[in-house]
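Structure tokens please, single chain.
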Amino acid sequence: MIKTVKKGDDIIFTVYVKAGCRRERIVGEIDSALKIEVSAPPVEGKANDAVVKLIAKSLGIPKSAVKIESGLRSKKKRIRATGITSDDIQRLI
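Here you go.
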């Protein structure tokens, strides 16, 4: 189960990102975090942009509603998403 925290209208959760993969997809769960693979390389924020785009598309929300709160230079990132519930996150796996 993905660990989520509700802050006002936002849901905060952790993702583990593997960059430079063949395709972009949500793989599943690892250590209570969402595991994601993106094809973009981890340089100049390209992988971060791909993460935001994939999460927004998967949840059916605009990219502006998804923000990387911490971990911009790490494989493990905290994501803040607006307009969703923790159940929406659980349905991704």
